[in-house]
From TrEMBL:
It is an enzyme of class 6 (ligase). The lineage of its organism: Bacteria, Bacillati, Bacillota, Bacilli, Bacillales. It comes from the Bacteria. Residues 104-333 form the Aminoacyl-transfer RNA synthetases class-II family profile domain. This is Phenylalanine--tRNA ligase alpha subunit. One of its GO terms (molecular function) is phenylalanine-tRNA ligase activity. Its cofactor is Mg(2+). Mg(2+) binds at E249. Coiled coil: none annotated. Binds 2 magnesium ions per tetramer. NCBIfam families: pheS.
Length: 337
């Protein structure tokens, strides 16, 4: 038995085979164990001799088994270590970093410019009341200009804000009678528009408001020029066109020169050379008075900018819908690493 077992043991190369070997030669049903059980049938004089031989064989096999076990464990460990070795000469795998969304990027950049001019940044509710979205902005219930903004109503009094201008009123009510008021309010607004290349039912506005003594239209223009140059470079031009808003008087729409302009083929400005990016004007005296600022003493200007428009111009994106489709081919271009 011993010779057979030892020969077999030499060929064993893994733990599983070693376990089988142990069961076969030393286990409960092994020949060895069988022999021990038969010992009872022997003459008393033969027992010690027989028992001793059995023990010797068993001990010898146990010892061999143990050696083999240790040898195998060592071999397996070194094989594992070999397999786990890191090849430092392999090329690295690049981690997948996200990118800031172009709209968030533009908002941050614009915030930076206005922070530099001493503005505070504020946030307002997207679900607004009729009072702040319209009435306090000089748009009473029967005012025809309400048709200008197709509104998502929630109840008769509650609606999705159609612009960030309600924050003009909320800010003034909070700060009155402190001056100067200088605040910038980025946020999402909602309109019942059909979505197309330049319209979206939800988009982003950035409201600006300045109130103080002796604030004039030229301050509005200077502020916007400063902003335009900071975002688009020293040579960016700003064009004011007369317009109308019930909450500003006089009112102006503001265009920027199309910096993406490829003349005939320009998809960003549709060959006009200019892009309208905001509505603005001198805060209407009634709006000042309703919000707690004496209009015989204070004046102010306000503007509401389309963040998507600014981003379209800055990054040459011809379709506003691309901002909301989360297409990685677009978004990954804004990765900074
Ligand atoms: N709220 C206006 C709009 O959404 C823009 C605007 C803001 C105009 C502030 C004048 C002053 O079209």
């Amino acid at each position: 038995i011993q010779t057979e077992a030892e020969t077999k043991l030499q060929d064993i190369a893994d733990t599983k085979a070693l376990n089988e070997w142990r069961v076969l030669y030393l286990g409960k049903k092994s020949e060895m164990t069988g022999l021990s059980k038969q010992m009872g049938q022997l003459e008393a004089s033969e027992k010690p001799q027989f028992g001793q031989s059995l023990n010797q064989v068993r001990q010898a096999l146990e010892a061999k088994w143990n050696d083999k076990r240790e040898a195998l464990a060592a071999a397996e460990q070194s094989a594992r270590l070999m397999a786990e070795t890191i090849d430092v000469t392999l090329p690295g795998r690049r981690a997948n970093f996200g990118a800031m969304h172009p709209i968030s990027k533009v908002i941050r950049e614009i915030e930076d410019v206005f922070l530099g001019m001493g503005f505070l940044i504020a946030d307002g509710p997207e679900v607004e009341t009729d009072k702040y979205n319209f009435e306090m902005l000089n748009l009473p219930k029967d005012h025809p200009a309400r048709d200008m903004q197709d509104t998502f109503y929630i109840t008769e009094e509650l609606l999705m804000r159609t612009h960030t201008s309600p924050m003009q009123v909320r800010t003034m009510e909070r700060l009155a009678p402190q001056v100067p008021v200088k605040v910038l309010v980025p946020g999402r607004v909602y309109r019942r528009d059909e979505d197309d290349a330049t319209h979206s039912h939800a988009f982003t506005q950035i409201e600006g408001l300045v109130v103080g003594e002796g604030i004039r239209m030229s301050d509005l223009k200077g502020t916007l020029e400063q902003f335009a140059r900071a975002l688009f470079g020293e040579h960016q031009q700003v064009r004011l066109r007369p317009s109308f808003f019930p909450f500003t008087e006089p009112s102006a729409e503001v265009d920027l020169i199309c910096v993406q302009c490829q003349g005939e083929g320009c998809r960003v400005c549709k060959q006009t050379g200019w892009i309208e990016i905001l509505g603005s004007g001198m805060v209407h005296p009634r709006v000042l008075d309703m919000a707690g600022y004496d209009s015989s003493r204070y004046t102010g200007f306000a503007f509401g900018m389309g963040a998507e428009r600014v981003a379209m111009l800055k990054y040459g994106i011809p379709d506003i819908r691309q901002f909301y489709q989360n297409d990685l081919r677009l978004l990954s271009q804004f990765a900074t690493i």
